[in-house]
Amino acid sequence: MSPAPDPAAGDRRVRVLLSVDPDRFADTVSEAHAAGLEVTEEMPAVGIVRGDVRADRLPALAEVNGVDSVEEDEDDRRFQLPPPDSTVQ
User: What is the pLDDT along the chain (89 residues), one digit of tens a residue?
Assistant: First the structure.
């Protein structure tokens, strides 16, 4: 059995959105993958790539030629509504 990942050691994974140069899309995605990005979605028409990366690889990902920005993907947030009988409605 393998040990549990240690977030302090950089094993924490982060879901990210990359804004990339649409004219270099394929090359940039390939280089981002080599930098540690596990691509989950590609949107070449708008120059966006979604994926997961180890937190300690974020600086290397930001340095990939053709990457304009790296942002944490906030679509991964979860919300829970209060129960129907709650005083907060």
Answer: 434 445 554 578 999 999 999 999 999 999 999 999 999 999 999 999 999 999 999 999 999 999 999 998 876 555 567 778 877 75
Instruction: Please classify residue 35 by burial: count the beta carbons closer than 10 Å to its beta carbon, then call 0-12 exposed, 13-18 middle and 19+ buried.
Output: middle
Six token digits for residue 44: 């070449």
Tokens 């990210």 correspond to 16
Cα separation of 20 and 70, whole Å?
A: 9
Residues 6+ apart with CB under 8 A from 5: 11, 12
Tokens 């979604």 correspond to 50
